[in-house]
């Protein structure tokens, strides 16, 4: 793709952003926490397919195979591109919401990590939590263009999911911690908000791994993978009170025939009137141009997390 084509794409993004500014408040019901809030998740402990899930009912529609062996965290960038982290190749990836296929962005440059959480903040910063190896369970900032990870500090607790709203980065406690925390983006330290308080599905707790994200009305949703010894318990959808950490069960994840599904450890919600975008993979010569474009999109990023400031 030429530099002119890349610039044309960025111009189109700005046009969409301007249109959204003029139409704020006119979002469809599903983007406002209505009867059909849609989340995207990968059954990374099952078949490694991307699924589209009605969070209110738990009914999931399979999109397609990711092409990667263990993507356990997802987050939408402000433009609607879906990012993830694959733990087998240790790479940042982008995923098609139409086909499920994912493509590598770049190596994180880390020797080992597991059970990640991933979230963009309102300024376009990309953050990653871990619940292995540990302690100290390290927290990182990722470069969304190169994939490179920068160590921020120790979380001091397993954190398996991340979500951002109101200027705060929230984390879902992993490995049976069953709690909600806030994570300091400057130090990486996780601070307890409160326990989920859900009935244990496993003798040790409610979930091992999972994902969280906010919808367009500021409702915090979660999805959990309750068991890995072996993977026999179905995943469940729940909501979380960000002020207390208390969770409410909503649904069991099933296919359209009502068969329970398992192995979901990630969650990303796209609360916008516009559909999510397909990933744009630049040629090397356009990376500098795209980097400046990403900086210019900081204002548009606030539309993705309009409750984030």
Task: Put the structure in a nutshell.
The protein has 309 residues and is mostly beta strands.
* CATH fold topology: Neuraminidase
CATH architecture name: 6 Propeller
Tell me the number of helical segments per DSSP (H or I, 4 or more residues long).
3
Radius of gyration using CA atoms only: 18 Å
Percentage of β-strand residues: 25-35%
Please report the first level of CATH classification, the CATH class. Answer: Mainly Beta
Q: Rough shape? A: globular
End-to-end Cα distance = 35 Å
Global structural class: mainly beta
- Summarize the amount of helix as a percent range: 10-25%
Tag the structure with descriptive keywords.
309 residues, Neuraminidase, four-stranded antiparallel sheet, 3 helices, globular, disordered C terminus
Descriptive notes:
This protein is mainly β and 309 residues long. It has a single domain (3-304), classed as Neuraminidase, CATH 2.120.10. Helices cover 12% and strands 35% of the residues. It is built from three helices and 20 strands. It has helices spanning 3-23, 287-296, 298-304; strands at 38-42, 49-54, 60-65, 71-76, 82-86, 91-95, 102-107, 117-120, 126-129, 138-142, 149-154, 159-165, 168-173, 179-183, 190-195, 209-214, 220-225, 236-240, 247-252, 268-269. The strands form five sheets. It has a four-stranded antiparallel beta sheet, with no helix packed on it. The longest helix has 21 residues, at 3-23. The two termini are 35 Å apart. Mean pLDDT is 82; it is low at 1-34 and 282-309.
């Amino acid at each position: 793709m030429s530099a002119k084509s890349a610039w044309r794409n960025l111009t189109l993004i700005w046009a969409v952003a301007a249109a959204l500014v003029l139409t704020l408040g006119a979002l469809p019901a599903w983007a406002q926490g209505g009867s059909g809030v849609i989340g995207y998740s990968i059954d990374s402990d099952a078949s490694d397919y991307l699924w589209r899930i009605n969070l209110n009912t738990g009914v999931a529609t399979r999109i397609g195979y990711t092409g990667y062996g263990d993507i356990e965290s997802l987050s939408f960038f402000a433009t609607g591109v879906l990012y993830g982290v694959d733990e087998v190749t240790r790479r940042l990836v982008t995923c098609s919401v139409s086909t499920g296929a994912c493509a590598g962005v770049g190596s994180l440059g880390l020797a080992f990590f597991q059970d990640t959480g991933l979230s963009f903040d309102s300024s376009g910063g990309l953050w990653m939590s871990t619940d292995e190896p540990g302690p100290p369970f390290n927290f990182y900032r990722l470069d969304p263009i190169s994939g490179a990870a920068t160590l921020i500090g120790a979380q001091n607790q397993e954190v398996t999911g991340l979500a951002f709203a109101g200027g705060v980065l929230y984390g879902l406690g992993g490995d049976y911690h069953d709690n909600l925390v806030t994570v300091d983006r400057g130090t990486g330290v996780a601070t307890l908000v409160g326990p989920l308080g859900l009935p244990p599905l496993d003798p040790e707790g409610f979930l091992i791994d999972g994902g969280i994200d906010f919808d367009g009305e500021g409702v915090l949703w979660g999805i959990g993978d309750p068991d890995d010894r072996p993977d026999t318990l179905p995943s469940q959808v729940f909501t979380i009170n960000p002020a207390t950490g208390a969770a409410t069960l909503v649904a069991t994840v099933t296919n359209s025939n009502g068969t329970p599904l398992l192995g979901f450890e990630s969650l990303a919600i796209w609360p916008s009137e516009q559909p999510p975008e397909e990933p744009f993979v630049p040629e090397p010569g356009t990376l500098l141009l795209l980097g400046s474009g990403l900086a210019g999109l900081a204002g548009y990023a606030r539309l993705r997390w309009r409750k984030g400031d």
